[in-house]
Structures are given as structure tokens and as C-alpha cells.
Design a protein that fits this description.
- The chain is of the alpha+beta class and 199 residues long.
- It is built from 6 helices and 9 strands.
- It has one domain: Aminopeptidase (3-Layer(aba) Sandwich), CATH 3.40.630.
- The longest helix has 15 residues.
- The radius of gyration is 17 Å and the shape is globular.
Length: 199
């Protein structure tokens, strides 16, 4: 378990280089209700004042409802304890056992090192085995080759194109929809070589 002076939070998994720290609506509520801007910035690994303002606005508007929720993980570097990025689920609809997968490394220097590959296996396992998901979907730009290769490595299958789905630089771009279903996960997981250990 790793803790912080801000909010004690268990690290759900440990991989070779990372702690994966759970971030849920409950933790979010505690964070924004009781912590300073500096503490919020440190805990979330926020990179700018603009990003902090966006996070506070999202919280104010309500980022979880009775119908849609989230369940994310922070990627913490084991040596420094710094937050390197996020990976987990948003647009989680428990009633229909589905959620959208999202992930992001904050700095270019941490990319192309296999960190997200290392984190994704345990997080997919958590989604299917602990969150009772049947379907995990992801949407990505067709030019995002590293992300495409990462998802294909874990068995995601292409379903088609979602037109005009994301605004990027004021332009509505299409997204490629891919998904992984529970029976596919169960057939593939033994080949993933997961090394994570619950803490």
C-alpha cells in the first residue's frame, strides 16, 4: 500500500515499474472537498493552471451520475512516486456492463518505454473481474498508431468508424471503435503474462 498525506489511497496493483493507484468518485469527492489547489495538483499529476481549472470545473458539474460513472488508476513511478499518467474507465454504465477505456502519459519522455503496456493488462483484468464488465471499448484516431498497436496486442477488435466524434484543433475528427468482450478476455488472458500483484 502507498499513501499520501492528502488522502490515503491503496495501490491496487504493483507491476515491475509502477504502482497503479485507484481513483474513484469517492476519492475524487474527498480530494476536491478537503484539499488545496497545490494538493490536488500533486495528487492528480496536473501539468498546468488551465488543467487544474478544467478538473475543478468537471468536478463542479458532476463527473459521475446514477447512470454513468468512472473508475481510473494513476500510474505512479515506483522510484520517484510521481504520477506519470492515467489509465482506466470512463463512461462506465454498470447496468449494461460496459465502459470506455482511456489512457494517457503526461510527458513525451515517458512514452515508447512500454509503461502503458505494463499497466493495461492489470487494468483490463480489473475491469472484467472486479467491475463485472462484459464489454470494454476504446475510441482512437486512425493515425494514432502506437495506441492502435497497444490495443491490438491485448486482443481488441475493430468494429468501425464513429464519424465526427472528437473535436481536435476545432475540427470534428472520426474515431476508430475497437472493443474487447469478456469471452475474448477469458480466452486470451493466459497469454498476457501478467506480473501484477495485488497489494
Amino acid at each position: 500500500m502507498i499513501t499520501t498525506d492528502i488522502i490515503p489511497t491503496p495501490a491496487i496493483f504493483e507491476t515491475d515499474r509502477l504502482y497503479l493507484r485507484e481513483y474513484t468518485p469517492k476519492v475524487c469527492q474527498q480530494l476536491f472537498a478537503s484539499c488545496s489547489d497545490a494538493e490536488i495538483t500533486e495528487f492528480l499529476g496536473i501539468q498546468s493552471e488551465k488543467e487544474l481549472a478544467e478538473e475543478k470545473e468537471n468536478f463542479k458539474k458532476g463527473i459521475s451520475t446514477w447512470f454513468v460513472s468512472f473508475h481510473n488508476f494513476h500510474l505512479l513511478d515506483k522510484q520517484s512516486g510521481k504520477v506519470l499518467g492515467r489509465c482506466g474507465y470512463h463512461t462506465w454504465i454498470p447496468k449494461h456492463r460496459r465502459a470506455e477505456l482511456g489512457y494517457h502519459l503526461f510527458h513525451d519522455k515517458d512514452k515508447a518505454k512500454g509503461l502503458m503496456t505494463e499497466a493495461l493488462g492489470p487494468i483490463l483484468a480489473y475491469g472484467f473481474e472486479q467491475m463485472n464488465l462484459y464489454r470494454i471499448e476504446a475510441l482512437l484516431a486512425d493515425y494514432n498508431i502506437p495506441s492502435y498497436k497497444l490495443l491490438k496486442r491485448y486482443g481488441f477488435k475493430e468494429e468501425g468508424t464513429v464519424r465526427g466524434h472528437y473535436i481536435v484543433n476545432s475540427v470534428n475528427e472520426d474515431s476508430l471503435m475497437v472493443s474487447l468482450l469478456l469471452p475474448e478476455y477469458e480466452a486470451l488472458k493466459s497469454n498476457w503474462g501478467l506480473q501484477e500483484q495485488p497489494l
